[in-house]
Design brief:
The protein is an alpha+beta fold and 130 residues long. The chain is 53% helix and 25% strand. Helix 4 crosses helix 5.
């Protein structure tokens, strides 16, 4: 049973589509809601899987529960991976994200959720080499 005062996150690997989903689970008066808040497909999903394994220091199964801090790292990683074309630049962005504090990551997660593509663009402008 979920605690009504908390939000839960999980990560699901999709074998058929080759994608990865970050899900938000909210238990409310009206019932349990599960909402995908980020989805990444094909080779980008494999990069996110490697990032998550490094973040959590373990192999991830079909679905893994995440604490809020890890979920914020994964959310920012997925949004960046979706918005960058070159593999090397995605790897650079994930390396930078891995080195940020939980507070910095929470800020970027908020910025990306609030401003969508503009939030990801701001991260890239601030941290990635031209």
């Amino acid at each position: 049973m979920l605690n009504k005062n908390k939000v839960y996150y999980s990560l699901r690997m999709r074998e058929k589509s080759g994608g990865i989903q970050l899900l938000e689970h909210v238990d409310s008066v009206s019932g349990l809601f599960v909402k995908p808040i980020a989805i990444v497909f094909p080779w980008r999903a494999e990069m996110i899987k490697i990032f998550v394994e490094r973040l959590l220091r373990k192999e991830i199964e079909e679905e893994t529960r995440l604490n809020t801090e890890d979920a914020m790292h994964v959310l920012v990683a997925m949004k960046l991976a979706s918005s960058i074309r070159e593999r090397m630049r995605i790897e650079e962005a994930l390396e930078i994200l891995y080195s940020l504090s939980d507070e910095e990551t929470s800020f970027w997660a908020w910025k990306i959720l609030t401003y969508k593509n503009k939030g990801a663009s701001a991260f890239k402008a601030m941290y990635l080499r031209k």
